Amino acid sequence: AQKVTQAQTEISVVEKEDVTLDCVYETRDTTYYLFWYKQPPSGELVFLIRRNSFDEQNEISGRYSWNFQKSTSSFNFTITASQVVDSAVYFCALILNQAGTALIFGKGTTLSVSS
Amino acid sequence: KAGVTQTPRYLIKTRGQQVTLSCSPISGHRSVSWYQQTPGQGLQFLFEYFSETQRNKGNFPGRFSGRQFSNSRSEMNVSTLELGDSALYLCASSPSNRGHGYTFGSGTRLTVV
Fold first, then answer.
1. Quick one: which of A70, A65, A110, A82 has its CA closest to A14?
2. How far apart are the C-alpha atoms of B27 and B62, rounded to whole Å?
3. What is the pLDDT of residues A39-77, one digit of tens each?
């Protein structure tokens, strides 16, 4: 069975601090996709990034960066120089590349950035 | 282009009633999935429709049902509402291949009293 674990329930930082959100996943399949979503208070899940299991390249997008390591089954997300607008719940998710599967979400990490 | 539209945004229903939620996917997207989000259980998959056919179903009782129309719009129905059905119901659309990712709507917050 597949599983996604986000061990950090809540993180509080002060503006301009760097913060890393951890994500560990479990699957025996070799082909899968990993995602990060942001959920602001409005409720909508905002897509941040998608990674397939064959692409271990790290990615940077502005202040956001992602570190995918298959050896440790981790897909961590770092926000550099955090801002108040980054305050939200962040979800890591996994889906297998086969029919009959659905997104499996972690429990989420609530990030609070204070000024 | 327009995003995923869910209506209504908020609903208050009485235990025992039934409710219908609507989701309009992004134009051209043929897959619509539904998720339930509660503080205790987190985000849980309800079902997925593709070209009017249910392609996948989560572990929810038969009171939860859905359908998809020829224009890809989807509805989900919950009959005989229970207090525990209070949740944020999120709809996601995708072109077809799960590797493309999913775009979510703002959700419908259902409160059962």
1. A82
2. 29
3. 998 889 999 999 999 988 888 899 999 999 999 999 999
Secondary structure of B81-94 in the HEC alphabet?
A: CCHHHCEEEEEEEE
Task: Tell if the CB–CB gap between A43 and B98 is shorter than 8 Å.
Answer: no
Q: Is the dihedral of CA A77, A46, B31, B100 positive or negative?
A: negative
Per residue in A21-46, pLDDT (tens digit) is 999 999 999 999 999 999 998 889 99
End-to-end alpha carbon distance in chain B: 37
Length of chain B measured in residues:
113
CA distance B18 to chain A (A): 23
Question: Residue B101 — pLDDT band, cuts 50, 70, 90?
Answer: confident
The first and second tokens of residue A85, run together, are 């607008």
* A-B contacts at Cβ under 8 angstroms: 55
CA distance A5 to B83: 28
Could you say which of A47, A91, A100 has the minimum Cβ distance to residue B103? A47
Question: What is the DSSP secondary structure assignment for residue B41, as one 8-state letter?
Answer: T
Q: Report DSSP letters for A33-98, one per residue.
A: EEEEEEE-TT-PPEEEEEEETT----EEETTEEEEEEGGGTEEEEEESS--GGG-EEEEEEEEESS
Percent of chain B at pLDDT exceeding 90: 86
